[in-house]
Amino acid sequence: MKPVVFFLLMLYFGTVSFIAPAQSAGQRDSMDKKNTAIILQDGDFITKATVSKKDSIISIIGRLGPGYSDYRIFGYKKNDSRSRKMILISIFTDDVKNNPFLCPFGAYYQTSDMKNMQLKYLSKKGCYIKAAIIKEDKQQATVYIEKKWIAFE
Q1: 59 in a domain, yes or no?
Q2: pLDDT (tens digit, 9 = 90+) per residue, 105-141?
Q3: Domain residue limits at 112
Q4: Structurally, how many domains does the chain consist of?
């Protein structure tokens, strides 16, 4: 049997997969509500991403344990939380694992996990900040992040 045919048969029968199993819309909604409730319960005691004075790069480092708080930061396509979720940085494994929100630029625990990619602050727009997604030194997209998740050095 030719290797290509063998590979296609394995892919068809589920022995090989490049696509993570998708969550159902109900599972995703349930997880989303649970994690949102945890963040709301935290009130003002949340971990914020920091904008560097030097180069306007946005960073967040995930830390667990006493003295550290939760975070769940979406970058939206428009300055509207109902618009498409483009990127996510979250402390919650079920937000990050397998990218359940299907964010085109991925889901990460912290910005240092974003290989060859950075978020750069551009400006403020209403209740949001406007940021560029920079990949390999080229702007790939613009996203909007709620201001409550951002702190300036």
Answers
A1: yes
A2: 999 999 999 999 999 999 999 999 999 999 999 999 9
A3: 23-152
A4: 1
